[in-house]
From TrEMBL:
Pfam families: EAL, GGDEF, PAS_4, SBP_bac_3. InterPro entries: Biofilm_reg_signaling, EAL_dom, EAL_sf, GGDEF_dom, Nucleotide_cyclase, PAS, PAS-like_dom_sf, PAS_4. One of its GO terms (molecular function) is cyclic-guanylate-specific phosphodiesterase activity. Its EC number is 3.1.4.52. Keywords: c-di-GMP, Coiled coil, Membrane, Signal, Transmembrane, Transmembrane helix. The keyword Repeat does not apply. Residues 296-366 form the PAS domain. Residues 454-592 form the GGDEF domain. This is cyclic-guanylate-specific phosphodiesterase. Residues 601-855 form the EAL domain.
């Protein structure tokens, strides 16, 4: 009963579709090969071997009028499309017209039939959300397949597509339990669903107009005559067109109706009313779902409009088919002015060749590509650098019909990277190489001297009375003097010399290519030192006044010492100190008698070993606060409590530990001590859960099993990894960068956090910095200390804060000693501090007592 009523309603709908008719005969007989795939009632192969169904009979009537001879070619849907594209058939009925198909098929203008797609199942499917996880049977290569894929992606559902070569197989798959829902056009579905025990669901979509199709640019006369007869017959309600629709809308139903039900035909009007009500309700539901889809589409468009990257689509002719608003803004064009155009309308011939070469590579390979492109934007002479990502756009059958690209302007990123590079390797005042760059150059020069059997030297230059100038005339005058000194010394050096500024009033002159004999080398260095002192003795002009400077120079020869770059620099500094003690404008060569300092280092090394064995090293903790003096964390700082010498500063023994490799076992010992303290503080009301930062040396992190050793300490002590922060320095990025990043990532997965200490004082590369799993940047106290009086330090702090914010990293300032420091840092966007303004480093017991006092003072006890 229900099945028959549904078929009757379907017939009535078909009766209401407006069409027209007309007549025209062809002048001569023509053989027309027609692809026929089984899709009743629209198209099927008749018992006589000729096309049948709505499209088949309609074409046969047109053939009679035009004196065409029809040859039916039976094929499934996908094979029919393939044969049509290859010209093996002339016409294919029942083809939905889409922009993609217009690229390779020809269509007439007047639609032969209007249709839509519908889901059929034995359970209710109300929306695309109900398709999640469902097995969906549908025709391979059909418009329903490509549409549903996009629909599933948009609604973030994951149906399982079961592709078949005919609609009956799709419905049979649901009937046999091989699928949960089938999709087809409503003609076939409404007609045959009851035979498979299925019902039409509320999920209706993709209204489409159906046409006859030909191979592109072929058989235009066939399409023209089809258009003619459709135009004539649609206007005549008594034409064969409407007869065909009526016949196939009702065919096969009367035979299935029981005789006693024929009396219900009198209720057709009532059924029609019910149908209208049903359609009305269906339209409301479709409108609601259409509104939801439109809302989501608007949201997506809003996202694309808000993205500050150029997003575009191109077809295979490399014409723009979509551009987002930011693309239009960047090019200074409207959307209408860009669509359909190519890059030749925007860029120079050389730039177009590079862009199109990248486009064609994606279209040919079918693979994603990433590249940098440097172009001049229309109306501008400035070059901009874009990072462009391209992906191919593919049809359901895998063919590429275009590409999608996203181009992001990274010009400012490169400029910022250059500024960071300048800060890392060059002095901001004089623009000379800084200490880090000098050490790099010195190491290379020493190795080259050994290879060439030559000698070299380091001249350590210290200006006299520089601090007096700063005190008397201010830091601006001091900076100006440094610039003039740099310029004057630079004028007196040649390609064999490298002039660098270490900091403060200290310069270094690296000399290469000295004669191998010691006497000749020392004579040349003596003349150079005297010339340098003479240059410094000449007056400088500061604020329209003459200022005399003078200096002291210490010299160390490569051949005199078996030291690395740091050692050569240190020996030259010792010689400079000796010259300074002798009076102004003097120079001294490094003397072996100065090895007392080296002996002291050897004693320190032995003492470190004993201290480690006897547990003489202990950790003190310096609190880290925000502006409201809320405790944020602690930094663990090592102290050496020597039984005879008392507390020894880390500045005295850490460099020795680094050079000798003792820093690795010492660092492990201190890390375990810090983790034990974390476990102890789990019972403390104020320190439970407060993270502790432990400094890690470059030697430590470069050991192969560093990550495993840290995890072992956490396991052994029971400390929470979430409360452990490891402080690394920029010097760790000089070598083995990839391995360092891998170790940090493995520890990050365990829960350990990382901060970059003393940022801005050493090696800085945005490429590696962005890869590091960092949580925090720490501004070196050297920049913070003179923040209020040195504009260069202020500029560096602002740059570091901005960089941290752009990378979503916390920025903490070290060396905060006054309230004015806090206010200035806060104005720059830095809100976490560490320094003597808040607290000096304290032993654990004193720290606990101090925190308890603060609680009492705040009135919480």
């Amino acid at each position: 009963m229900k099945t028959c009523l549904k078929r009757l309603m379907s017939g009535l709908i078909c009766v209401l579709i407006p069409l027209a008719s007309g007549q025209l005969r062809a002048d001569e007989t023509r053989l027309v090969r027609v692809g026929v795939y089984e899709n009743p009632p629209k198209i099927l192969l008749g018992p006589d071997g000729q096309p049948s169904g709505i499209f088949g009979e309609l074409l046969r009537h047109i053939a009679d009028e035009e004196d065409w001879q029809l040859e039916a070619v039976s094929c499934n849907w996908k094979a029919c499309l393939q044969q049509l594209s290859e010209g093996q058939i002339d016409l294919l009925p029942d083809v939905a017209r889409t922009p993609e198909r217009e690229g390779w098929l020809g269509f007439h203008d007047i639609p032969a039939l209007n249709s839509w797609s519908r889901a059929y199942a034995d359970t209710e499917i109300e929306s695309p959300l109900d398709l999640d996880g469902k097995r969906v049977a549908l025709l391979a290569g059909s418009v329903q397949l490509s549409y549903l894929r996009g629909l599933a992606e948009g609604f973030e559902v994951k149906p399982i597509f079961v592709q078949v070569d005919s609609y009956p197989k799709a419905f049979a798959a649901v009937q046999q339990g091989e699928a949960d829902v089938a999709f087809s056009n409503h003609f076939f579905g409404d007609y045959f669903a009851p035979d498979y025990g299925l019902e039409g669901t509320a999920l209706i979509f993709q209204p489409s107009r159906l046409f006859f199709a030909t191979p592109l640019a072929q058989n235009a006369e066939l399409l023209s005559r089809i258009d003619h007869w459709l135009g004539v017959w649609r206007e005549d309600k008594r034409s064969v067109y409407h007869d065909i629709l009526s016949h196939w809308g009702e065919a096969g139903q009367a035979a299935e109706l029981p005789r006693w039900l024929q009396a219900l035909l009198a209720g057709a009007v009532l059924l029609l009313s019910m149908l209208v009500a049903f359609v009305f309700l269906l339209r409301i539901q479709v409108r609601s779902r259409t509104h939801i889809l439109a809302t989501r589409e608007a949201q997506l468009e809003g996202v694309l409009a808000g993205v500050e990257s150029c997003i575009f689509n191109k077809d295979v002719q490399l014409r723009y088919t979509y551009v987002n608003p930011f693309f239009c803004k960047t090019m200074g064009q409207t959307e209408a002015g860009l669509l359909g155009r190519t890059d030749a309308d925007l860029f120079s011939a050389e730039e177009v060749e590079k862009i199109h070469s990248a486009d064609r590579a994606v279209l040919l390979s079918g693979e994603r590509s990433v590249c940098e492109e440097v172009v001049r934007l229309p109306g501008s002479q400035e070059t901009r650098t874009f990072l462009s990502v391209r992906v191919p756009l593919k049809l359901a059958d895998g063919r590429i019909w275009g590409l999608c690209g996203v181009s992001t302007d990274i010009t400012e990123t490169y400029r910022q990277q250059e500024r960071i590079h300048q800060l890392a390797w060059y002095d901001s005042v004089t623009h000379l190489p800084n200490r880090q760059r000098l050490l790099q150059e010195l190491a290379g020069a020493k190795q080259q001297a050994e290879d060439r059997k030559q000698d070299g030297a380091v001249l350590f230059i210290d200006l006299d009375h520089f601090r007096d100038l700063n005190d008397a005339q201010g830091y601006a005058a001091g900076d100006e003097l440094l610039r003039q000194v740099a310029a004057r010394l630079t004028d007196r050096v040649n390609e064999r010399f490298t002039l660098a500024r270490l900091g403060g009033d200290e310069f270094v002159l690296l000399v290469e290519g000295l004669e191998a004999t010691r006497e000749q080398a020392m004579n040349e260095l003596q003349q150079l030192a005297q010339a340098t002192l003479q240059a410094l003795a000449e007056p400088f002009i500061l604020k329209a006044q003459r200022h005399r400077c003078g200096g002291s120079i210490g010299i160390s020869l490569f051949s005199d010492l078996h030291e690395d770059a740091e050692g050569l620099l240190r020996c030259a500094e010792l010689a400079m100190n000796d010259a300074k003690s002798a009076g102004s404008n003097c120079f001294r060569f490094f003397d072996p008698s100065m090895q007392a300092q080296v002996q002291h280092r050897a004693e320190l090394e032995a003492g470190i070993r004993v201290g480690m064995e006897q547990g003489q090293f202990e950790l003190w903790y310096q609190p880290q606060y925000d502006r409201q003096q809320q405790l944020l964390g602690l930094e663990a700082l090592v102290r050496w409590r020597h039984p005879e010498k008392g507390l020894i500063s880390p500045a005295d023994f850490i460099p020795v530990a680094e050079e000798t490799g003792l820093i690795v076992p010492l660092g492990d010992q201190l890390l375990e001590q810090a983790c034990q303290q974390l476990v102890h503080w789990q019972q403390h009301s104020q320190l439970n859960g407060v993270p502790v930062a432990v400094n890690i040396s470059a030697r430590q992190i470069h050991t192969a099993d560093f990550a495993e050793r840290v995890c072992a300490v956490l396991d052994r002590t029971g400390a929470s990894a979430n409360t452990l922060e490891l402080e690394v320095t920029e010097s760790m990025l000089v070598k083995d960068v990839e391995q360092t990043i891998d170790k940090m990532r493995r520890l990050r997965l365990r829960g350990v956090r990382f901060s970059l200490d003393d940022f801005g004082t050493g090696y800085s590369s945005l490429i590696f910095l962005k890869q590091l799993p960092l949580d925090k940047l720490k501004i070196d106290q050297g920049f913070v200390r003179d923040l209020l009086s040195d504009s260069n330090d202020a500029a560096i702090v602002k740059t570091v804060v901005a960089l941290g914010q752009s990378m979503d990293l916390t920025v903490l300032a070290e060396g905060v000693e006054t309230r004015e420091h806090c206010d200035a840092l806060a104005a720059m966007g830095c809100y976490e501090y560490q320094g003597y303004y808040f607290s000096k480093p304290l032993p654990p017991a004193e720290l606990e007592a101090r925190l308890a006092e603060q609680v009492v003072e705040s009135g919480t006890l």
